[in-house]
Records
---
Amino acid sequence: MQTQNFDVLGFVLKILTFPLLIQGPFLAFAWGATDPNWMLIAKRMFLLLPVLVFILGCWVSIASLVTVVIRQNRKEFVTALFITWWDLGKAVVSFWGGFFILVFHVFMTVVELVKILIVGIWTVVQEVLFMPFRVMGNIGSGLMTTNIPWLAIFLTMLWCLLETVIFTYVTSPLVMDTFANITGETISETFIRIPLFIFLFFIVLGSYAVLASFMDAVRSKDIGAIVGIGCIEVIVMMVEVVFLYREFVDSLIPWMAQHSENFELGIGGTLGIAAFAWFGIRSLSWFLFASHGTPTILTIIKGKGVHLQKNDTTAAAKPVRSTSNLLDHIKNDMAWFQQKGEELLASFMLPPLQVVAVGINFCTLLLIGRHLFRIPFKTIQDITDSTTLLKSLGHPNIEQTRENARAHDSRHSGGLGVINPKAAK
């Protein structure tokens, strides 16, 4: 009879301690100390954590079954125990599959990163290549919408420069001969052209200024101003004709003589053609752009300033914007990096944490009769804060206790991490 009792007791003890029979071989296999390095790493990565939680689950399940006889809701408790084992199975499979999900996320992230780099480089190239066209388009839009004749000002200045270049080239020999006769020395042509160019530029620009003043006097019907400025305009015309346009006509005399016999132009004909050329050039340039550009240039020279007037009938000029919206691409890329970072972190942390959470659920099921974590974890936000977990376990004052501890540490350290002598006393 005693032998039978010992046999029954031994059998019960074997059932209660059966994890001792499997935990050694399981741990040795999962540790893989004698395996090759690649297999050792693979076993420790994929098998060690599930084996540890499996062994823990076996021991906790035995202890839970022993306490069934003293529990009230036995049916619900046993059901929860089976569900915990089911959660462990799902967590282990999710742990193994999470590795492939992590590899997939890393691969897709690298592909997207390369794509972003290529698109970013191409966007920068587009910005550099098309920036001059956008700037010119913005300038053109501004010229079309503003009340200031910028285009007329630009054409007037351009025409004055062009006319100055031509007359500088034509009159350079005459000026060199004049200075040579006065000083008795030959002056370098390069040396004489720079001051001559500046001098002729102001002469040409001043000619348009006199013409603009004459037209203002005609519009205002001021007879005295018309006569005075008219005399000045005649003198200006004679100066330009004699010293500038005459040289221009003299340069055309060989061409005229080539196409005629016994050609003699004379001084009267030369000055007449020069005056006709001056009148034609001034008229064409004045009615085309100089009549609008010259008054504005004079206003700027006088220091009166150019007053911008709001034009309600025209749309406001748009600022220079990139056609590829580089800043929007950068913002989207930053948001994408943040999202992918969270996905990579979740795919790296959630699978092993689920296995650990199931092991903790085994322990809390034994102690308080319910699970602490809800399995499976889908996002990082599913990992509940420790304060919330403690509150769920029946510690409602845990947050107040932590705040009191922080205030106590702050009083004793003076907020600087150094013990306050007054508080210590």
---
Amino acid sequence: MGIRFSKLSLMALGVAASFAGAGGTIAFDRLGLLGAALGPDQNTAKLPADAPITSPEMPDGADRFAYVSADVGALRWTAPNIEIVAVAPLKTLADDIPTPWTTATSAPWSTETRAERVIPLLELPRLAIRPPQTSAWMPPRASAPLRDYRLARKLAEISPGAMRRLDAKFRAAKAAWPPVEVAFVTIKDEKTVELHARSEGAPWKLVHRYPVLAASGKAGPKLQQGDKQVPEGVYGIAYLNPASRYHVSLRVNYPNAFDRQMAAKDGRRDLGGDIMFHGKAVSAGCIAVGDEASEELFVLAANVGVENVKVVIAPSDFRRNGLPMANPAHPEWVPGLYAQVASAMAPFKGPPPSQSLLSSIFSN
């Protein structure tokens, strides 16, 4: 009976081994069936129930399904030689963020794991509304950048010729180049604009006299819009206009503080404006000097800076003729204005009378 049981056991063992392979053999060995089939003299020592089971090293592909014979003895796989190395955890951005469940003495994650800590979203993401941006193809809202672009383009266009003419005039006058300041002294009854310049630390030097090709009005200051008077006083240049209807123009900063103060005293409003040095030969309160002369004044002002351009407009040459008698048709404050203008003209020496007459006729 024992022999029959042994044969049946071996047959069952063969069938199980063909399906389960080495794993099934080990399982039978743990159940004690392998030892019973082999006999008492071939039994191996049983493992304790709580002994750990090491993962067997995977056999080659050709041996995985091989038939396990009972003559091989006890099946024992050796554990692979694996070196265990402790690995420090990866530091992530989340490690720098304090969380409600972490304390100074406890850490929820082991140093042998590489899992990143999951930071809960404490609040919903907010929709950031950005202000509207100006696209690169859209024109600027302000007019200044556009004016600057036109100014640069106009200067590139007219500067070569204007600079050649200015160089000749400065050489003829033996005036230093480049100047740091320039002055446009305008004498209404002589219809001339004197160009004066000076270098750093040097006195003013008369460079050239430009004829005024067109001007309206008569002696006396400008008082209101539409009187077609050329203003009289001491001014500056407000800005350069490269897109003038009269070639190029330089805007005089009329009305200045004195003009506004006297208008308030007289009760006058609407003082007018847009007084220019410009090209062409037409005028309605402006000073038209022709295209070439306007280019030279324009380029010169651009080079020294409009803040370094002084404008003096007088009814007559006070340096030679002195102050005129008071005119009853003029406001009572006009003699005081003329005294200011005469003082402002003093540093700018004019040419001799004969040269002044000839230059006003032939020069440009």
